[in-house]
Write a structure and sequence with these properties.
The chain is mainly alpha-helical. Helix content is 73%, strand content 4%. The protein is globular. It starts with 7 loop residues before the first helix and ends in a 5-residue tail after the last helix.
């Protein structure tokens, strides 16, 4: 059932939008400025969380901002509507982004103050607009709304990438814009073509029927439009359009966390899953052969990105290539076109977010406390910073798919999805099961040496190590929380079937499993 109007999605969007100018007005009062950031984050998360039960009960929370002059065959009013529609899949992304924004905001306070960073007001202002764009993407009712907020996300994160204002940072910013603004052109072309072909841009569970009806006569056009969308979502950093992401690691660590776990890259993979499941649909993807093509791109990216990661000594760059690899897990899950594959892809969006943000927050804590950026310099640092490195170890285990961290759950479903694809579509699809296993093994190859160096390798200068200690609680507490939740999500999955404190488990796991189940069931997948 679709409710005629709800103001809650608008209030959600207004939280960061109103916080941004208040941050500017409070530039001479740091405590007040950062207070607006935290207050907006808490309010936004509370509003998003309040919609969970309504969505799980079958409601779609609808909010129309305005109508355009263009006609829309799916709209009750007959006109193209700009606004928000909150479904289960969008709520998964919104919950992930809003909850992590709170933690990254606290972390940013400690990081910025510890390093006495310049332009802190600009930083928090752009941070607010970045989450404004990300949440807008998550809650968009159609491609037009998504495009608007997708471009807001690109523009608002550019000042964050060039925050240091060094020659290297400016160069990285140019590259960032060159890739993502070009991507926006392809995205816009795809939106226009879908509207021309179908008369609508609304997201529809299972795909737009009018688009499927064109398959027999417009196969080539539909394939071209799909690749325009794929290029439009370069934020997903699939190869060979990935190099902007490692380059952007010149940004401050909280920005890297924002790029990799909260907003930018998640918007990219979220958009690809939206196109596969809510614009084209599984049946059309299969009939056009696009599932196999997309899975091949994802599989190639996973393996090659891992090989690049192994060669990196700089910790943030190693984590950047790890992100490229992990994003392609999500793309591969959608490309498998199976029930468990898509379930695994949707789960990996929040689970990767929590694990990867843990890793980046730990990298920033190490840099602030010791000044060390390269793995080869971190011998014994686990003894000086035990909380930080234990949290890092949790995130690393999860990335490798090792229990009791939640990465095991999403990777398990992805593997099941690959097996299903080999049974439903073609035996050749079994190769993607082996790619998943090989990629996970390569994760071990470049994550475990970091843990070994930190805890078991003797430092060259013991006196220097003795001077290193954990940074500000503003930094340590958020990374400890994200690491803890990476384990809690796993325990929630294990404990729910046997009914142990199930109401509390649903609350602390943000109802993610229920939302994923609702989203996948809405797609009416046969496999």
């Amino acid at each position: 059932m679709v409710e005629p109007l709800s103001v809650i999605p608008l209030l959600v969007i207004l939280c960061p939008a109103l916080a941004a100018p208040l941050i500017l007005l409070s530039s001479k009062h740091p405590n007040m400025r950062e207070g607006w950031t935290i207050a907006a984050g808490l309010a936004m998360f509370s509003l998003i969380y309040s919609m969970i039960q309504r969505v799980l009960s079958g409601d779609v929370v609808d909010c129309v901002l305005f109508q355009t002059m263009f006609l829309d065959s799916h709209s009750p009013s007959g006109y193209l509507e700009i606004g928000f529609r909150v479904d289960a899949f969008g709520l998964i992304f919104a919950l992930t982004s809003s909850s992590l924004w709170i933690l990254v905001s606290f972390y940013s306070i400690g990081y910025m103050r510890s390093l006495r960073e310049h332009a802190q007001t600009r930083y928090f202002f752009c941070f607010a607009f970045a989450i404004f764009g990300a949440i807008g993407v998550a809650l968009s009712r159609n491609l037009v709304t998504m495009y608007i907020f997708y471009e807001i996300l690109t523009v608002s994160t550019y000042p964050l990438v060039i925050h240091d204002q060094t020659e290297e940072a400016i160069s990285a910013g140019r590259k960032y814009l060159a890739y993502l603004m070009t991507a926006g052109v392809f995205f816009l072309f795809g939106v226009i073509m879908v509207y021309i072909l179908t008369g609508t841009t609304d997201f529809t569970a299972g795909g737009i029927e009018e688009l499927s009806a064109l398959a027999p006569t417009h196969k080539l056009i539909l394939m071209v439009v799909f690749f325009c969308f794929l290029l439009g979502f370069m934020k997903a950093a699939w190869m060979p359009f990935h190099s902007w992401l490692p380059t952007a690691m010149v940004a401050p660590t909280p920005v890297s966390a924002l790029l990799h776990a909260v907003a930018v890259v998640k918007a990219g993979v979220f958009g690809i899953v939206r196109i596969v499941c809510y614009i084209y649909g599984v049946d059309l993807m299969d009939s056009l052969g696009l599932g196999l093509v997309l899975a091949s791109i994802a599989g190639f990216t996973m393996i090659v990105a891992n090989l690049f990661a192994i060669a990196q000594d700089n910790l943030k760059r190693r984590l950047a290539y790890s992100t490229i690899n992990q994003l392609s897990y999500i793309i591969l899950g959608a490309a498998l076109l199976t029930h468990d594959g898509i379930r695994g892809a949707m789960m990996h969006i929040p689970f990767h977010g929590y694990m990867k943000i843990t890793l980046f927050l730990c990298a920033g804590a190490i840099m602030v406390a010791s000044g060390k950026k390269n793995i080869s310099e971190m011998a014994g640092i686990g003894r000086a910073m035990p909380v930080t490195m234990l949290a890092f170890s949790v995130g690393a285990l999860g990335m490798c798919g090792i229990p009791p961290v939640v990465g095991f759950i999403s990777k398990w479903y992805l593997c099941l999805g690959a097996y299903q694809a080999s049974q439903v579509y073609s035996p050749v699809m079994i190769i993607f099961l082996f790619i998943l296993l090989i990629a996970s093994l390569l994760d071990v190859v470049y994550f475990f040496p970091i843990i070994l160096v930190a805890f078991f390798k003797e430092p060259e200068d013991r006196d220097e190590l003795m001077r290193i200690k954990e940074p500000s609680p503003f930094m340590v507490v958020p990374l400890a929380i994200t690491a803890l939740f990476s384990i809690i999500f796993f325990l929630a999955f294990i404990l729910r079937p046997i009914g142990i404190v199930s109401p509390y488990i649903d609350v602390i796991s943000l109802h993610i499993y229920d939302l994923v189940r609702t989203a996948v069931s809405g797609l009416a997948l046969g496999a």
